[in-house]
Each structure stands twice: as C-alpha cells, then as structure tokens.
Amino acid sequence: LHDRLGTRNMLHPKNMYLEDYNCALCGETTEETILHLFWDCQFAWTCWNLVVPNKHRGTSVYDEVLFTLSKIPKDIATEVVIMWCWSIWMTRNDKIFRKIAPSFGRWKAEFIHDISLMAHRMKSKHEEELLHWIAFLASWGIPCPSSSFLFYSLA
After folding, report:
1. What are the b/e assignments for 19-49, b being 16+ CB within 10 Å?
2. Mean per-residue pLDDT for 50-73?
3. Is 95 a residue whose pLDDT tops 70?
4. What is the pLDDT of the chain when averaged over all its residues?
5. What is the structure's pLDDT at 3?
6. Is 88 exposed, middle or buried (0-12, 13-18, 19+ CB in 10 A)?
7. Contact 8, 32 (CB under 8 A)
8. Buried (b) or exposed (e) across 136-155, using 16+ Cβ within 10 A?
9. Phi–psi pair at 31, nearest 5 degrees
10. pLDDT of residue 141
11. Are 44 and 88 in contact (CB under 8 A)?
C-alpha cells in the first residue's frame, strides 16, 4: 500500500489542492496518511476492536500486525485484514464523495457483508471457519441486519 493509495497526504505533493489534508474519518487535525487511516485513526481503532479486541496502542506497526494476526484464525487472516482495510477505505470514500457520515454500525454491516462474500471463493474447510468467525463478530455489540443472510450455512 505504501505510496499506492490516494490518501490526502499523497495528493498534496502531486499538486492536488484540497481544502483540508486531515483525516476524513476521525475529524482530528491529523494528516491523513496510510498509517493514520488504517491504524491510528480513532474510527479505525473502534473498527479494529471488533476484529481484534484488546488491541494495544503505542506499539510498533510490526508488533500490531503480529498481534492482529495472532488473534484471527490463521487460514483466514489475510482475507480478514484485506477486507477490513477495504471497508475502512470505502467508509472514508463514502464520507468524502457521498457525504455519508462514518458510523461504526454501518461499517460493521458492510464489513461482515463483504467478508461473507469471500466464503463463496474459499475452499470448503476454510469457508466453514470463516462463517463461524463472522457469526461470532456479528454477535458483538451493534446488530448487523444486512448480514443475516449468511447464517444459512451455519444452521
């Protein structure tokens, strides 16, 4: 992702004028970098706590990645991290381009919906693990009405 994603701090050196180069998700006066958007942003932190409860602040990115990967089932960890980043990125874009306020409930529903679609392309032994993990996530906190369709294979 390094220097490949059009975060606000990447647009500035390319002479693209924006009124504000700060993070669109958290509203803090912090420049929107990849590191901030996916790890340090308060909105991202709240989202990570769903996927990886008890995540620690103040550690290195390397340690955070290792901790994160240790808390997600090994066979589906890569897919989870990619979809998590995709969901944050889409929430950010919805705020910027569609003027839709970021909400944890909306992010959670979209994340669970998007990651459940991955079950269709996985080997059956990993599909069941993914669906059980998704059911576990969906049971936490804010309900996800749009994810109810994925429980057909868990019954």
Report:
1. eebbbbbbeeeeebbbebbbbbbebbeebbe
2. 79
3. yes
4. 79
5. 66
6. buried
7. yes
8. ebbeeeeebeebeebeeeee
9. -60, 140
10. 55
11. yes
